[in-house]
Amino acid sequence: MLKRPITKLKDLYHADEHFLKFFESNRESVDRSFFFFMADHGPHADLIRETRLGMYENLNPFLMVTIPSQYRNTSIHHQLYHKANELMTNFDLHATIVDILKEIESGQLLSDLQRFFQLQPTTRFSDTSYRDLMPLSKGSSLFREWRGARNCRTLPIPSAYCICHYNDTTVNDEVLMEKLGKFFAEQVNQILYDNGVADKCQKYKYFAVGEL
């Protein structure tokens, strides 16, 4: 329960006029562009972050994406629309930008982006089929079909930033705590070994369960 009224959120709309002026004066440019408008986090001022809704909002920053007017109501627009309520990561935004750069006409490519063009022919942004963009990107383009479940267990999202709802169990058994601690340490060591950096990192060992 909030102990004092929220005060800073009353200034939430102080920049509206600035944004309105920007969009009105740049409307033609925005209509010709792939435009990404985003925040780095949700509201984290005052006590709203202590509420469950505020906690989720803080980890779920604002994102708005518009595409050139000539591609609206097309297949890539439909793909983008259907992902409005899907879980996505910064890797997916990176993959989308890579996808855009790869689709530019070859005469417009910058010299250091020539290699992107060689990986996928120009399709005038009509190709929405699934595409694995590794090693260029770990994410999935917003303009293409996605595969598999999308949650914090399948996507590169640290647990501290997860907004998924999972059932949790409080463990009070000290023997089980020790088993879990040793298991986690072994798994971390295995990941370091599999990635060839075990000799550069300190080996993890279970010591005790810290205070939560």
SSE inventory with pairings:
Layout: H1 16-25, H2 27-31, E1 35-38, H3 52-58, E2 63-66, H4 75-82, H5 90-103, H6 114-119, H7 174-194
Antiparallel strand pairs: 1-2
- How much of the sequence is in beta strands? under 5%
Number of alpha- plus pi-helical segments: 7
Helicity, as a percent range = 25-40%
Shape: extended
The H/E string reads HHEHEHHHH
Poorly predicted tracts of residues: 1-7, 103-121
InterPro entries: DUF229
Pfam families: DUF229
Organism: Angiostrongylus cantonensis
Protein name: Sulfatase domain-containing protein
Distinctive features:
212 residues, mainly alpha, 2 domains, two-stranded antiparallel sheet, 7 helices, 2 strands, disordered N terminus
Describe the structure.
This is Sulfatase domain-containing protein. It comes from Angiostrongylus cantonensis. One of its GO terms (cellular component) is extracellular space. This protein is 33% helix and 4% strand. By secondary structure, the chain is mainly alpha-helical. The chain folds into two domains: 22-161, no CATH class; 169-211, no CATH class. Mean pLDDT is 81; it is low at 1-7 and 103-121.
